[in-house]
User: Fold this.
Amino acid sequence: MVAAPGGGKGTQGARLAAKYGIQHISSGEVLRAEVRAGTPLGREVAAYQRRGDLVPDQIVFDLLTPVVSAAAAHGGYILDGFPRTLPQAITAADVGRRLDLTLDAAVYLNVPEAVLLQRLQARARADDTAEVIRHRLTVFAETTSPLIDYYRDRGILVEVNGDQPPESIAADIQARLP
Ligand code: ADP
Assistant:
């Protein structure tokens, strides 16, 4: 699932995973769990998340790969928040080929920026302060949004209007999944 911060990846990811009986993996949540565990790596992750910067690819891969491999061995997964950069997508495709995993669809929740701002301001996560929100939206526009064309070119993009009630978004996604 690809979407800007506040785009609804978490909400829709959880719904889809429940519907298909597969695991919902949020990269942000996997990283936050490491922060909560209070490890040295977690302290490093916290510094990036606090600023709204992307966590370095190597750390993301180290923490996420075991979780994704385990889920893949148990029927599949909905991955939300990863990949978030073109290099992550390219490496993930290589790893996927080696592990014989196929990416069936990349769901893009398209939400206008004004709506994203409203949603993020109504939330109370530590990285949802006005300044950090602005930075995360810039990071999305500059670094993550190229993934939309990347997956469109590969013929697996499912773009839905993410500015609707959650049930309608879920129905749109499900109607369009292969
Ligand atoms: P949101 O999409 O609202 O920003 P997430 O929980 O997906 O929330 O991500 C929160 C933070 O976790 C990001 O700002 C970033 O610091 C880090 N993060 C999550 N996924 C990745 C990723 N794939 N690569 C690098 N950093 C990530």
